[in-house]
UniProtKB/TrEMBL annotation:
Gene Ontology MF: a single term: acyltransferase activity, transferring groups other than amino-acyl groups
Domain (N-acetyltransferase): residue spans on this chain: 143-305
Species, as recorded: Amycolatopsis arida
Alphabetized InterPro entries for the sequence: Acyl_CoA_acyltransferase (IPR016181), GNAT_dom (IPR000182)
Xref: SUPFAM superfamilies: Acyl-CoA N-acyltransferases (Nat)
Protein name from the UniProt record: Acetyltransferase (GNAT) family protein
Lineage, top ranks: Bacteria, Bacillati, Actinomycetota, Actinomycetes, Pseudonocardiales
Coiled-coil region: none
Keywords: Transferase
Amino acid sequence: MTDLVRAQAERFAALDPRLPPFDDPPEGEELSAALPDGREVGGVLYRAYHGPGTPESLWAARENWELTPVLGNTGAAGMAALLGALRRRLDHTATGADSACVVAWPSRDADVTRVLLDHGLVPLNALAVRPNRPPEAEAPNGVLVRRARPVDEEEVVALRLAELEYSALVGSNVLRQDAVDVVTADVRRGLVFGGRSWLAEMDGVAVGLASCGWSTPAPGSAIAGRLTEGRWGYVGTLSVRRDARGGGVGRALMAVAHRELNLDDVPGTFLFYSPVNPLSSVFWHRQGYRPLWTFWEVRPAGALR
């Protein structure tokens, strides 16, 4: 697929200067498809299983089939042919109800949108980036933002679960039976081992949470091949209690988080959000984030058209 990889790298570079250079696709099962004019396209299919007790099981289906298309410069026609090949591949596999097909594709490539929709895929998640810039807000009167401590575990867990419950309504997250245990264990690790989490308080009551940190697009990570090399700041969770929304709590939390994350060697920050979430899709754009990759998904996997 060398020629296809080279052509796709050129296409991506022209689409969006913030995309990392497209290199060889990850390892997995290779797919191929032919266009009516005789041109061929390819892709790599990777199956992951997220078992009980894993953090990934809270934001993805148990059985996840992720396709990395290698279309060269064929655009919509190439995507249509490859998704047809994927549909035929899944016809020979028993996929359960808790399964999904996922295709990550540059958000600015509008030419392929109609094809993805026609095959039953919907944009349930996006990776968005924000270049370093000065924070734009301070805490409003009556709001105190401070670092979360181990003694705050109960409040942090409650805010994390509230965000998970809402996101499960409007995105790819899943509220599973073991969610409390999984979230509690993750929160405890972060608070004990120095994770970057901030609480917003009003009259001594926790009303908001921001959990952040730094990450690199290392092989095997969730952002491998999605961001340019180097250390990036990331926002893992932002949660504001329903009765405290609209008063600047989220902006105040992110002002503190961005001030901490925007180090000299960090090109910017990234996060994942749902484009169909009516809160996230407005708030994050106002914070200076814009989508770089969109994750198109269909559940169950067998529903791919």
